[in-house]
Design brief:
This protein is of the alpha/beta class and 249 residues long. It is 40% helix and 15% strand. It contains nine helices and eight strands. An eight-stranded parallel sheet has the order 1-2-3-4-5-6-7-8, with helices on both faces. It is globular and about 50 Å long. The structure holds zinc ion. The site of zinc ion has 6 residues, from loops.
């Protein structure tokens, strides 16, 4: 495997950042192959502007579970999100989800249910953040059988992955795969490639030694996945890119 491999690995999950909005380096990842998610309702109009500049960009509307307490009140979310989707036609819903380690889980559940209902109604994929709440999330997904989407920054075992697969959920593989004692690294060999996507979560989840992540890091994660699965890197990249197209196109 040579180091000069110049494959583009499509980024299934990132956010607005200087690197994306004002790129100073040579762009390796096309905006057409990046799924850029909102973290708050303030991002929605910024994402629309970003897509005006990059017409093939994929953008998502949602409110991250860490931000719900200082964003739209839960009673206003549904009407505002529906209106914005009708007007602006985002490509997916997210980021939303559950995080036991941060904030109020009951409130997160209220916000999440609205996102799930809207994603199913508009037939849009949904990008989910889930930290130590897989059982609650899986139970809730059971109520939305037509939904499809991705669990971003997946870090659990292959049995949980199988449960998500039955709920039409892909798994986002990011910098956690480089941590050798992580659940993800340990289970990677057993995860079906058809269920996997690569993501940077730029700029928030850098690999050790970096300040921020960016979409070009996806190549490093794809190569690590190929190594752990003992597969040909080109084959792995072709497959995760096809999975990306299947989800977002
Ligand atoms: Zn994110």
């Amino acid at each position: 495997m040579s180091n000069n491999l110049n494959h583009e690995v499509y980024d299934a999950h990132c956010h607005l950042s200087d690197e994306i909005c004002n790129p100073t380096t040579k762009i390796v990842i096309s905006p057409a192959h990046r799924a850029v998610a909102a973290t708050s309702s303030h991002d929605w109009s910024k994402l629309v502007t970003y897509r005006q500049i990059n017409p093939k960009a994929k953008i998502g509307f949602g409110i991250h579970p860490w931000n719900i307490e200082r964003d739209l009140p839960v009673g206003k979310l549904e009407a505002q999100l529906r209106a914005q989707i009708e007007q602006q036609q985002p490509d997916f819903i997210g980021e939303t989800g559950l995080d036991v380690l941060k904030g109020n889980l009951n409130l997160q559940l209220e916000y999440l249910k609205i996102h799930l209902r809207i994603a199913q109604d508009f037939n849009l994929p949904i990008i989910l953040h889930c930290v130590r709440a897989h059982n609650q999330l899986l139970e809730l997904l059971g109520k939305f059988p037509k939904l499809r989407g991705m669990i971003h920054a997946y870090n659990a075992n292959s049995e949980t992955a199988m449960q998500y697969r039955r709920k039409n959920m892909q798994l986002g593989i990011g910098s956690i795969i480089l941590t050798s004692n992580s659940q993800l690294a340990k289970s990677s060999a057993h995860l079906p490639l058809e269920q996997l996507l690569i993501e940077s979560d730029a700029p928030y989840m850098p690999m050790t030694g970096k300040q921020t992540s960016n979409s070009t890091d996806c190549l490093t994660y794809a190569l690590e996945l190929a190594m752990l699965q003992q597969k040909n890197p080109s084959e792995v990249i072709a497959r995760v890119n096809q999975n990306w197209l299947n989800l977002f196109s």
